[in-house]
Amino acid sequence: MAEPFLLGVLGGMGPLAAVDFQYQLLRAVNSASDQQQIPMAVWNVPQIPDRQQALAGRGPSPLPQLIDGVERLNRIGASHIVIACNTAHHWFEALQAASRAPLLHIADATTEAVAALSPTSVGLIATQGTLDAGWFQRRFARHNIETLLPTAAEMASDFVPGCYAVKRGDVAAGGEQLARLAQALLDRGAERLVLACTEVPLALRAIGWQPPRAAVDPAEAMAAVCARLWQQQRST
Amino acid sequence: MAEPFLLGVLGGMGPLAAVDFQYQLLRAVNSASDQQQIPMAVWNVPQIPDRQQALAGRGPSPLPQLIDGVERLNRIGASHIVIACNTAHHWFEALQAASRAPLLHIADATTEAVAALSPTSVGLIATQGTLDAGWFQRRFARHNIETLLPTAAEMASDFVPGCYAVKRGDVAAGGEQLARLAQALLDRGAERLVLACTEVPLALRAIGWQPPRAAVDPAEAMAAVCARLWQQQRST
Predict the structure, then answer these.
(1) What Pfam families would the database entry show (chains A, B) (predicted)?
(2) So what's the ipTM on this one?
């Protein structure tokens, strides 16, 4: 007999993004009854080293805390695990190796959502660690989609301060900086934007900024994949 | 050595209320940094019999699923457990008996918040099961606070349909019905309202209804108690 479906959410990075992701899961199912919603368990423990700092070589690795979270989610009975943070996917293989339950990769879900829109180019907004890792770019390239990246100057002047402004609760200031970066990518010819850091869509929504063509939110793409998986398992 | 603090949240009743409660926990700490937020694990599994139906003798008991959730939260390492549903406190003693981690009672947190406002009377909006159990009324009476209750007719015409409208996503219609009940309690002389069903504050906020003097939201009172407990443990 198949193990019961239970989605494990590895959160804490930050804690607000993990809560927002749970809303996206509820919206993705769009059910009239509580009982049809995705059963989930959430590890939302923000006492974990900063991922951006670690990847920049300026702080300790979050890997021990990430493995602890994955082990706890296995212990509570998760059948599948998702990571509610783009940058933490840097440690995806190590976490998969530590987990009985399979992990779903956010870049796979995002690529599916992007490919469905058939753009020739996308602008990718993400942490330096995510940009350097190349998960998104390699996957998009397989669909003949070119990825436009922020410049080093834009990362330093707009992305990093914008992101940390959101983290400390100054969503309006952060939103303005992130919107400037988003506009720059559109001005360089990006047909679509991929907002691959959980703080970004949240901050842009907060200030009411919208690109001319709908952006792809990897967390939303991930929620859609989770909802489909749950609905498939329920109907079998 | 004391066990590390980890708040276990028993949710799923409904899943949206459990997500809202997590927002209230984040707001209650009001911290500038992710790392200062409450570490938490959430069991948000909505495949559980309806509490109102069970207490009315019209459906199976949710107790087996509640105990399973409490056991899972113990297994993941919860040091304290809260139940993100007023009505489910009907099974509080049985759940406490099944748990190594202590459970915090929502009516204790609420009484503390109500007593701080020193009203002579409050109007209590809650499910029939919660009203019948008398947890809130007995605690308020110890502070010489009289509790005004909805009539049977108001429960049938406003509370029950209002609540289920919210559960099926029709927050506007539900809000109108619940606001009518809230106004009736104020008209009968309630100085303050206690909105002791997770759907109620959510629905009243959604339609912009506000009583003349701020209402007490038990979930918010509970979040405040959790935040204080976490901050005490961090500083020791």
Answers:
(1) Asp_Glu_race
(2) 0.93
